[in-house]
Structure prediction request, 259 residues.
Amino acid sequence: MSIEATASAMAEPPRPAMLLFMGGNPDHAITSFQRFFPSSVHIVTSDKYSEKYEELLTEWSVNYEFRKGLVCFVDDLFEPSAVNSLITASFQALRNEFEHKGDSEETPPLLVGITGGTMHMAVTGTYLAQLVGGTVFYVLRPPEGQPILPARDVVVFPELRSLKTALTTVVPDVHYLMGEGEGQVEELLEASNINDYFLEQLESAGLIEVDEGSWQLTDLGYHSFNFISKSRMWDDFHMILEQMLSDSQSDSEDSAMHG
Prediction:
């Protein structure tokens, strides 16, 4: 399943709420809308751009058919208090989102865009997403001379706990999960190294969904496995993990010898 506007054999997931950290350049926001088809959009920016984004957000909400959220701004962006102000502004937007949700049972996923603004805006956005369970994304510049392709030029960052679980999944099982996408739990246990315990870990981390004997790779699972398989992180993580286990075993042997 995908939070993008794609067809699915199963029920469509809710359209995501989006929180964008913005500087002076608005272009990446449009790429975000085209990629994720949000249900609502909020913006965190500086007081310098607040009026600009009030107007743009109204225009965008009509053109891309989402609910206009809040434009929350800070006036101390380059002062030591900026991070606290940015978090306060973000919670103001999230409070508006929860109030608008009302009695609805289904909470939309939260996407946090960290493309615009200053470096500490990006760090704050990342921290906020981990704090409230959102997903961070970043819009890349397209290769020189090429048009923007939302499916190619948006990087989605998996959540930390999910990423750690994905990193501990062995290579053949990652290929199996990514290749199949869904299936019967019984077949998964037979065709892979995954056992009942690790299946629960995958489900707990939000990487797969299990329902009445069937499993399906989640959007978070797809992005997590895709992220690690295209980076050096996987090899580095396992190298460090093996070294830690080796050191731990050596310490235990030393303690036994000198006990």
The beta strands are 17-21, 40-46, 67-74, 110-113, 135-139, 154-157, 182-184, 208-211, 214-217.
